[in-house]
Design a protein that fits this description.
502 residues, mainly alpha
């Protein structure tokens, strides 16, 4: 027995040291709030996956749905938490710390085992999923989340416009150039049989991007749109603290039509609300007439593409999926972006060390604190209402084009109202001296996102109309939570001696 001890003890100690180092690196690369948010989102999505596997009327459909939501659950930590290990890799490479640099690949291997291999095995055993499909889907989700965190900022803008641009070019080729045989077979592009190859390609791209950033991170582009998202700032926010960047830094690096600075000619003592909107900065600044027409132009082009696609082949399943995807993307993606865009700007002003909000209290023309409070809330609420009405009009137009019935259009309006309440709460919290993003707010935003996806599914799939009862309950809970938060933040906002004094 004494001779066997020296053979097994070093291996066990080495394994324990590797696990301990991986745990220490994960705890050191992100703050506690980010860890809690990622774990909460992952647990919620895994719970939805388990529920779908248990409640689905058809076992094969339930297995596919469970794997899909499990993939979303895996993508959350790999997109928001684990990429921060790259910052440690950059520091280790710059500081000549080979031991730290060598421990990070081992930590990534353990994370792949814990978040990809073991959950895939559990899906095979518990949900009856196909082994290759489950492993490939989770691997693709993990590497896609990691790769998205390492892309430059301009890639996200390109991804937003890519579907609309592809659809427009395809219709242009079919109608004007006479290439009727040209088709975009989405089913062939996203074939489940090609999922292993897709996972392998994403893994190679993520490994190449990781190595390139770790070795060449000393040269950081001046433009934030060319910088990897994870390297935006070494702050405490998600994805490297990009929320700490000033809106003027983004605007200086892009054309005015993309991130409009708005107009300042109408601001003055006779227009205190417009003056306050100018002081708050983008995106609260009133837009010029040409910039407003540009926004309407984008919406008109999107509607024309959808109408042309629908009139070209109204019975095509791909066309229906395009319309449904436009509704889902506009409702979920556009809504959450609206919430974050306005609330983020106010939260930056609240946290700025220079005290810019306090200096606004010294400006004349805003009256006493009560009047200044009313003007500030009007300056914040007016662009929110205008954007909400504009987005609702686009969604209703898309719904009419897609042939959504009256009940579906009503659900779209309910979703817009829920998003509006969440956006108002995200803006009122910084004005009341509270952080825009807390654990409670992140949970509420995630619940709203789940309800948006569910609403889109019920609206675009009439055969799922039986879920309207639980949609009523879900949206009632979301609106009630937003109402409670608005009441509490409004009391804090009114109790402050001056709206600009933090």
């Amino acid at each position: 027995m004494n001779t066997a001890m020296p053979r097994t003890a070093p291996a066990a100690a080495a394994r324990e040291t590797t696990v301990q180092r991986a745990r220490a690196l994960l705890l050191a690369c992100v703050p506690r709030r980010t860890r809690v948010l990622c774990v909460a989102a992952t647990v919620l999505l895994l719970g939805i996956a388990i529920a779908l596997a248990m409640l689905a009327p058809r076992s094969e459909r339930g297995a596919i749905a469970a794997v899909a939501f499990a993939a979303f659950a895996v993508a959350v930590p790999w997109g928001f938490w684990f990429p921060r290990l790259l910052l440690l890799q950059v520091e280790a490479h710059a500081s000549r710390l080979p031991a730290l640099a060598a421990s990070i690949p081992a930590a990534l291997a353990l994370l792949l085992l814990a978040t990809v291999v073991l959950p895939a095995a559990a899906l095979v055993v518990l949900a009856g999923a196909e082994p290759v499909f489950a492993l490939s889907a989770l691997m693709a989700a993990a590497t896609a989340g990691l790769l998205m965190a390492m892309l430059p900022g301009w890639c996200y803008l390109a991804l937003c416009f890519a579907p609309l641009l592809c659809a427009a070019l395809l219709l242009l080729a079919q109608r004007l150039l006479g290439l009727e045989a040209l088709r975009l077979d989405l089913a062939a592009v996203f074939d489940l049989q090609r999922l292993p190859a897709l996972a392998a390609v994403l893994a190679l791209l993520a490994a190449w991007r990781w190595r390139a950033i770790a070795r060449g991170a000393g040269i950081v582009p001046d433009s934030p749109w060319r910088r990897p998202v994870v390297l935006q700032a070494h702050g405490t926010q998600l994805w490297g603290g990009s929320g700490l960047l000033d809106a003027n830094q983004w605007q200086a690096a892009m054309p005015d039509w993309l991130w409009p600075a708005g107009q300042t000619g109408r601001a003055g003592r006779t227009r205190p609300v417009e003056a306050m909107r100018v002081l708050l900065g983008t995106p609260f600044v009133p837009l010029r007439r040409g910039q407003v027409l540009l926004q309407f132009g984008f919406a008109a082009i999107a509607l024309l593409v959808f109408v042309a696609a629908l009139t070209a082949d109204p019975t095509s399943e791909q066309v229906r999926n395009l319309i449904n995807g436009g509704l889902g993307g506009g409702l979920a993606g556009g809504g959450i972006t609206l919430v974050g865009m306005y609330g983020w700007r106010l939260d930056v002003l609240r946290r700025r060390a220079a005290g810019e909000m306090v200096e606004l209290a010294l400006l004349p023309g805003f009256g006493d604190p009560a009047q200044a409070r009313r003007l500030l809330w009007r300056a914040v609420a007016r662009p929110l209402v205008q954007t909400g009405l504009f987005g609702a009009a686009i969604l209703i137009a898309l719904g009419v084009v897609a042939g959504v019935d009256a009940a579906g259009l009503a659900w779209l309006l309910v979703a817009v109202i829920g998003l509006g309440l969440l956006a108002a709460l995200a803006c009122l919290r910084p004005l009341a001296g509270q952080p825009m993003l807390s654990i409670w707010m992140a949970g509420l935003a995630l619940a709203t996102l789940v309800m948006l996806m569910s609403t889109t599914a019920v609206v675009t799939r009439p055969e799922w109309g039986s879920g309207s009862a639980w949609l009523v309950g879900g949206w009632s809970l979301v609106c009630a939570a937003c109402g409670i938060g608005l009441a509490q933040s409004w009391r804090r906002f009114r109790a402050r001696p001056h709206p600009f004094v933090q």
